[in-house]
Amino acid sequence: MYSFFGEVIEISTIKDVALLAGVSPATVSRVITQKGNIASETKARVLSAMEQIQYVPVHSQANDKSGTIGFSIARDPKDMLDNVFFSNVLCGISDAVKKFDYNVQFSLYYNIEELIEKSIDLFKKKQVNGFVFTSIFSSDKDLLLKSMQESHVPFVMIGSSLNQNVFSVHNDNIRDSYMATKYLLDKGYRKILFLTPDLKQDFTYDRIHGYQRAIEESEETDFTNIIYCDNEELDITKALDKAIEEEVSFDAIITMEPIASLITLKYCQNKKMRVPEDVGILTFNNVTYLDKVAPSITGLNLNPSALGTEAVQLLSELMDSKPPAWVHKSVTLPSEIIERQSTNRSTVSFI
């Protein structure tokens, strides 16, 4: 309730509508935003409840809402230049906010402390309604979540947050890595290198686990070799040179980023290794330009645009809760392998 010049005015909330209509707040949100399949009878009850208590949807309360969602990342800018995953997520967010009549503000910070400080400040000044965060290092995640929740800032994480009471949307990286490794095993590859950067993010652990589990379950091989290196050409070249010098035999390579797969392909070609006959190459984060090289490179499609779209949907539900409901809710999206020439041994003529 609010008091203006001695007159008490009661402001209705989405929870009041849900209680009167006998539905969940999420259902009310979907009716307001016209998202999802809602039974006509349920929709009628919700609209009737809104009219009875004179509820004005949060997106229409222009005096205390700026209509802006923040998409914020704490990463070195150079890490972003070659990574189209983030731009695809941003495209998904941009498409989704149009349906809610919101704008999107993209912010890139050098460290987690700056991201936290700026995000809380933007929210308190009512310049941003809520945030979508992604690519948060494992060591920074607890600090971020604690700070946002203490300041009652609505936010959604893109990435697994299994042990926290937050809204999140993510890929199942254990499942995806297992699927990619098993795919290569089914193609006849037996000595698969796993090329990955450091362990600063949770998904790296999960992908390693999926890779190892697929090998452990295989009756054809017990070979595992995890090589840690950055996605720079010099680092990848040195890492593969070292493997060859140490007489590590391999017939397939999994990379974490498309740019790393291109560098790996170039390396194999310089070393006269035939792809896919001698070495198969598969990368996480499928992008269209993988189809433009020869041989084209097989990619694991993580649906980054859909991650962005789903994150906005979750955030809209959270912003309609006053204060934000800190409960665990996660959405896991499917992934698929886009097969191309770099692993397709069956279409290659052996000489």
From TrEMBL:
Matching Gene3D superfamilies: 3.40.50.2300, lambda repressor-like DNA-binding domains
UniProt keyword Transcription regulation, yes or no: yes
Keywords assigned by UniProt, alphabetized: DNA-binding, Transcription, Transcription regulation
Stored PROSITE patterns: HTH_LACI_1, HTH_LACI_2
Source organism superkingdom: Bacteria
Domain HTH lacI-type, residue spans: 12-66
GO molecular function: DNA-binding transcription factor activity; transcription cis-regulatory region binding
Family annotation (SMART domains): HTH_LACI
InterPro entries linked: HTH_LacI (IPR000843), LacI/GalR-like_sensor (IPR046335), Lambda_DNA-bd_dom_sf (IPR010982), Peripla_BP_I (IPR028082)
Key word DNA-binding present: yes
PANTHER family: HTH-TYPE TRANSCRIPTIONAL REGULATOR GALS, LACI-RELATED TRANSCRIPTIONAL REPRESSOR
Protein name: LacI family transcriptional regulator
Organism listed in the record: Paenibacillus apis
